[in-house]
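Thought: the user wants the 3D structure for the chain below. I'll pass the sequence to the structure tool as-is, report back what it returns, then summarize two notable features.
Action: structure_tool
Action Input:
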Amino acid sequence: MSDPTRDEQRLSFGAVADAYDDIRPSYPADALRWVLGDAPVRVVDLGAGTGLLTRVLVGLGHEVTAVEPDPGMLARLSARSPSVAAVEGSAEATGLPDSCADAVVAGQAYHWFDPGPAHAEISRVLRPGGIFGPVWNFRDESVDWVARLSDLVGRKDGGAYKGELAGDAFGAAFGPLERAEFASVVTHTADSLVALMRSRSYYITAAPERQREIETGIRELVATHPDLRGRATFDLPYVTRAYRSARR
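Observation:
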């Protein structure tokens, strides 16, 4: 079986939308405060998925419009957050009016965008001076068992992207790029760690033999690694990397 294409991966999540929403980590509120400031603003959550980031934004008092291309993911978002404006659209074609947003954010999604058309569309929906802020949660691979986990599950998934953006990454329509990082942990069991990996695009689109190989490897890692062996629960450390850049 050939490796999944990029489009197959980025549109693979709808089939597991409920599980994705239940098992994927949320985002530290401090990271969003750093991107957006403390005052409530109009935010477009681009590639919003099931609304993990949307719910943090709403909790911080922002007025949110969620844009998501996958109908299955969008349905879960709407069920969880019925008061949020949710529209089917993409980073390259949101369907939103010009200058309708004070900020655009993207949680765990920017690496799936087609940069040129997406940057033009983000610039169009932002007011002058508005902020674009992509955010990622990364497993902290400075921890040995976490690095071994990443070796096990493979690095072809979009989640393997490291969020390293150059200062001019968003093009001439945007000003200087700033970056900040925030640490967090999520407590897991062997079963929930397997469930987390089942929500990754590379697992979803992999052949059944490869899926079984991943699951077996995770359980062996938990059972044998000295940091995990004999523990019913353990903390998976994350680094949340956030960027912000103002539209010129």
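Final Answer: Structure generated. The beta strands are 42-46, 63-68, 85-88, 101-107, 126-139, 178-188, 234-246. The chain has ten helices and seven strands.
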